[in-house]
Amino acid sequence: MRKIKQLEDQTHQLQKQVATHKQEEEALLNEMEVTGQAFEDMQEQNSRLLQQLREKDDANFKLMTERIKSNQLHKLAREEKDTLREQVQALSLQIEAMHTAIRKLEEKERFLQTVLTNAEKELHLRNQAMDLNKRKAIESAQSAADLKLHLEKYHAQMKEAQQVVAEKTSSLEAEAYKTKRLQEEIAQLRRKTERMKKIEQAGTLDEVMLEEIREYKETLTCPSCKVKRKDAVLTKCFHVFCWDCLRTRYETRQRKCPKCNAAFGANDYHRLYLGS
């Protein structure tokens, strides 16, 4: 009986424990259910947060991309603006240069117009002057024809006068030559007279002979260089000199006779041979 009592007590105790375990199990199940729900809620919240985070990342990336694009566009816009500004400056310079060129062309056009007007006036005056000159040329041609006739007549008269002058000149030259020869003969006679006087004054014949020899030597010596013997004659005036003196005077263009200044040429002096 006692043992049954113990068994019953144990059974009752075990039933209590089973009930307690059931309660604990139910509590655990409830807690697990609550925890699972919380976990699901947390997972759902995490999913929403992750989604929001991805969306924010996407939005931030999009914003960053758009900002980069905006910066690039701004940089491009600034570069284009600078390029346009440079182009505008270049165009402004070109326009200013074109305006300057246009002003210069306008000034040149005005200058050329003035030159053209002056040229037209000058051409008109030249045409008038040319007409006047034509009339004067016709008159001058007529006067020239008349003058030509008079000139031909004067030339004929001058030719006749030149012939007369030439004849008279030849005659005068001949007379001058004769006069020169007479003067030389007179001088020679004077020398002979003086020699005769010396002979009369001298007492010996030897002195007279020596004086004559000296005079003969002087006569045979070239009067130009007074050294060499006379061996050439000028056929223009028949004065006699040495060949070297005449050739030297011809080569140095002193082509006149040393005595009478008569002009001579290459064929007017010849060798002269004095001897037997």
From TrEMBL:
Known EC number: 2.3.2.27
UniProt keyword Iron, yes or no: no
One GO CC annotation: nucleus
Domain RING-type as annotated: residue spans: 222-261
Pathway noted in the entry: Protein modification; protein ubiquitination
Domain of life (superkingdom): Eukaryota
Keyword tRNA processing: no
Catalysis: reaction(s): S-ubiquitinyl-[E2 ubiquitin-conjugating enzyme]-L-cysteine + [acceptor protein]-L-lysine = [E2 ubiquitin-conjugating enzyme]-L-cysteine + N(6)-ubiquitinyl-[acceptor protein]-L-lysine
EC category name: transferase
Keywords noted in UniProt: Chromatin regulator, Coiled coil, Metal-binding, Nucleus, Transferase, Ubl conjugation pathway, Zinc, Zinc-finger
Coiled-coil ranges per UniProt: 4-202
InterPro entries: E3_ubiquit_lig_Bre1, Znf_C3HC4_RING-type, Znf_RING, Znf_RING/FYVE/PHD, Znf_RING_CS
Main location: nucleus
A GO MF term: ubiquitin protein ligase activity
Subcellular location: Nucleus
Gene Ontology annotations of biological process type: chromatin organization; protein ubiquitination
Family the UniProt entry places it in: Belongs to the BRE1 family.
Protein name: E3 ubiquitin protein ligase
Species lineage: Eukaryota, Metazoa, Ecdysozoa, Arthropoda, Hexapoda
